[in-house]
Structures are given as structure tokens and as C-alpha cells.
């Protein structure tokens, strides 16, 4: 795929001071956001909405990422869509409400992460292309990654973070100079705790060399090939806030972190607190909302209910004395009196009867009705 060997005569320049002006760096950069995945790990919520459009702290998740791109001075964004493509354009339109110019490129059949990047090539305008996985909540300034890319005179620069268990991610060892040595996607035997944070800068020429018209994985095919060919692939490692929102546990945690201001988002204008209650929601006196709980528009929470790190979508109901901990309650779902929902996902319009106990990863499909006292997963409450 990559026919040339990428070597430059001179070594990398010294890293520059962050306060230095950017000399058009952001103007010469397009942002690409990959949002074509099916979000299977977040089912059943992703049966009705694509993962990047799920509400987080009251906004579609993607809006937090787009606001970070905008805050970095990058205004041209291309969304690589596939699954439920129309939902993105219906909401964000041409992007002008956010001060952005958004283009959409739809894959009829998903082309994978690398194929998705190659597929947006006709829309790219600048020399640098900043690619984001569309499900990452992060606090890193994209300009900092761009500066590393420029200073290293790299072909590709990857944003890396350190995690305690790298096995679910792309593991990326680097040498003492920050040059990437290998890319090991989801290895069971990770040699380092540095992982791919899902944000890269590409030189546009590199994207031109990704094969067109077929499915390509950037992680399993493009990166390993670039490294074999000797391309200049560098790392930008930092310890800013970072979370992949792809699982219910991470989604709940990321949402709570946004509400509490632990995860920064320019879209929230500095507002934070212990809970976030949206317009038109009814909270009875005596209900307890803690741990970064979000209550959506038109939702109702009755007296004595306890919501701790809960994500309550629009129009859902939580009855008296019910407990919802670290769980997502879909739109219009109903949690009966004194029910317990812990570490679980309740689909849109589902009904959990009085005194039911759902814990430890339970998932209720949309519209399913569980009768009063009809299900227990625990005896501990
Ligand atoms: N356009 C398009 N087409 N987008 C896609 C496709 C596709 O065929 N497949 C996946 N995506 C998008 C998803 O919507 C998501 O935003 C992003 O690409 C990454 O896909 P995930 O399915 O979330 O991948 P992952 O979380 O298992 O792993 C990736 O992210 C990790 C960091 O969060 C990899 O890049 C890992 O190396 C990385 O560590
Ligand atoms: Mg992911």
C-alpha cells in the first residue's frame, strides 16, 4: 500500500513552547471524525441512536468533541458516517450553529476505520488531517497534538495515553525519542501501558496511499504497514482526561464526569455540579440526585428515589423509593416503586416493575415489560 519509504535528511527539531503562535497550523488542518461504528457494546441504546449521538450531560456526545475541535481553531470538519448516517446531518446540519463547516461522507457498507479515513479524501483541503474516533471523551487540546506533529516533521502523529489495562485498546510502544515502534491492536500481552487514544494527525499524502473502495482497518493494516515501511510515526503522550465511551460502564462514568466538571467540555460553558436536571423534568421533594446524575427533559423522579451516577434519558420515570446507580434509563422507560437498577442498561420504553432488582450488567431491551416483583439478580438489598 505505501510504496515510498518515508525518511527525511534532518532529525526532528527541538520541541517548541506551547505559547508560540501557530502560524496557520489550525487553518491548514481538516478534522475528520469517524462515527460509522454500530456501537454494539452499548445496545440496546444504539438500536435507536448511533453511539456518538447518545445524550451525555444533555448534549449528543459528539457535540462535546466538536466543541473541542472548534476551541482549537479548526473549523472544517468531515464526518465519516455509515450506520444511521442521516441522524448526524439532521442534528448538526451544515455546522454553522456551532461556527463550523461540516461535511458528511457516507459509507454504504462500513469501510472500517482506515477505509473511512480514505473515503473522505475528496473533501480534505489542508496539508494536515486530524482524525478522531467519534466515541472518545478527552481533555487534550488538539493543537498540542498538531504542534508535536509539526515539530517532529512526522508522517503520522498519534495521541497516546496510559491506562491500567491496555488489552481493550491499541497498544503502542515508543522509543526514548517518542518514535512509535509498533502498533498492537487489542493484544492479550501488551508490552507497555501506552495506548492509542483514538486521535491522529496524518499528512494528507499518507491518506492518499490507503487503498480505496474496500474495508481497511487503520489499526491492523495502515499503522503496521507504515511502521514496516519506515514512515516517521511519532507519539504525543499526555495525561489529560481520557475515556472511550464505548461500554455502558464508561458511558455512565464519562457522563457523570462531564456533569461534575471532571471531564472538560467547552460545550458546557464551565457549568458543573453534583447533578444536572433538564428543563421540564419533575423532581419530587425528597428525591436524592448525586454522583453526577443527569435527568433528561420531561423525565419524572418521585419522592424517596435515589439516583447515584444515573443517566435518565428524556421522558423516563423513576417511581417512589426506587434506586438507580451507575445505570442508563432509556427514553420513556419506567422504573417502578422500590425497584433497584445498578450497573445496568434499560432500553427505551421498557418497564421495570415494582421491587425488581437488576444488577451487574443487566440489559433490558426496548419496550420489554417486567412485572412487579418479577426479576431479582441479587438478594443484597
Ligand atoms: N466511518 C466509519 N466506518 N467509522 C467507523 C467504522 C467504519 O467502518 N468502524 C468504526 N468506526 C468508528 C466508530 O464509530 C468509533 O467512533 C471509532 O471508529 C472507533 O471504533 P470503536 O469500535 O469504538 O473501536 P475501539 O474502541 O474498539 O478501538 C479503537 O479506539 C481505541 C481508543 O478508544 C481503536 O482505534 C484502538 O486502537 C483505540 O485504542
Ligand atoms: Mg471505541
From TrEMBL:
Signal peptide: none annotated. Keywords: Transferase. Residues 31-258 form the Nucleotidyl transferase domain. One of its GO terms (molecular function) is transferase activity. InterPro entries: GMPPB_C, Mannose-1P_guanyltransferase, NTP_transferase_dom, Nucleotide-diphossugar_trans. It comes from the Bacteria. The keyword NAD does not apply. Residues 273-366 form the Mannose-1-phosphate guanyltransferase C-terminal domain. Transmembrane segments: none annotated. It holds the Pfam family GMPPB_C. SUPFAM superfamilies: Nucleotide-diphospho-sugar transferases. The keyword Secreted does not apply. PANTHER family: SUGAR-1-PHOSPHATE GUANYL TRANSFERASE (PTHR22572). Belongs to the transferase hexapeptide repeat family. This is Sugar-phosphate nucleotidyl transferase. It comes from Hoyosella rhizosphaerae.
